[in-house]
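Troubleshooting: if your tokenizer reports a length mismatch, compare against these two reference records.
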Amino acid sequence: MKVILVDDERLAREELKSLLKDFHNLTIIGEASNAQEGIELIRTLKPDLIFLDIQMPGMDGFEMLRHLDEIPKVIFVTAYDNFALRAFEVNALDYLLKPVDPDRLKEAVLKIQEPEEDFVTSLNKVGDGTSKLSKGDRVFIKDGEKCWFIAVEEIRMFESDGNYVKVYFDKSRALILRSLNSLEDRVDSKLFFRANRKFIINLNWIASIENWFNGGLQVTMKNGEKVEISRRQAIRFKELMSI
């Protein structure tokens, strides 16, 4: 696969070239120090993939893409995380933060083999409800002006809040316009479990389980949060977990 690097920082290009040496299916055929050079190289060499910086003098990465008639697969590489939503909007393959983590780079490169419609998924979009969100997927979450690009497995639980759902991950509780029922249809039942009317929990985040009132259960998550599993769901939970 032919690759072009577009970044105004020489050291950033050198670092990326060093990391990409481990990927024998990728061949770097050119590099550009600004967007205009990038446009000319892409039109001439017709790469399959470009690693593209966003903030560059004169013309940023998003504007550069607008000047192209045919856009190759794009992996953004940037020092800033506030462009993640715009990267999703232009169907970027992935979004890497500098300094580039080798494991994240590997994840991004593996996506090249995936169907284009599976590159990224947004929890904020309802979609057709047919594609399941599995452990290895990454999702965009937008709450107001804030946005995140996280692995599904990092989400420890969802909580219904009126017409919205709170998404719990790291130290954040992002609010998205979705129903808990629609999310239950999207998430992998091997990873997430509907504990009650208000909560869906990540099974891998459960630290301990104890009997609770009226035949229910109470689970303690690894970070100390507690969630009750209703009596009806406790029966399903015990069957699922073979208790």
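Reference record two:
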Amino acid sequence: MLIQLLAQDPLAFVVLVTVLTFSLVLHELGHGYAAYLFGDDTAKRRGRLTLNPLSHLDPVGTLLLLFAGVGWAKPVPVDTSRLRPYRPGLLAVSLAGIVINLALAALFGVLLYALKETQPEAVYFALVEGKATGWAGLLSLVAFYAGLINLVLALFNLVPVPPLDGSRILMSLVPARFHPLIWRLDRYALYTFLLIVADMQLHGPISRMLDWAQRLYFSAILL
């Protein structure tokens, strides 16, 4: 996905990778800070409440983000037994990263809309013709891809399978007797990601949901 932009506009690619790196960092930082607010300082003690990308980025997750359009960072450590109150804390921690990605998607969407209103030709050539002309074209490409991928990351994390955030949201809503089963499913995380990547390659239900969201995002901003 993003790797195609490297051939199209290398400068836009570099700027976008920087923006998305910090999007992943902010996602994980949101989890850690929410946990801290609900009584768990594990992330703080382990130095994960930081904007330093090296503390958060996962090599495999970053490569998948570049080539498949979805990825992940190293999960912030959270000791759920220390969350007080437990269920609201678990829900807040689980939603924090998703909310941050949605807020970033909205922010970049507003920026792209403003560019469309003030620099319509530059936006057209950047997004329709694939030619970034001047600063407005470059900014249009970055805002479009950054907003789109933040939206995809948010929706991707809502899928209720471990270890995605959606599974933790589910845990905060179902009876406690089901929690050990959901925790045990974490051991199959690698297979979960492989199935999701396969779904996206084969245009399965998750892929169709993300495609629908992308079209809606594009239409809402540019029509």
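Descriptive notes for reference record two:
- The mean pLDDT is 86.
- Residues 3-222 form one domain.
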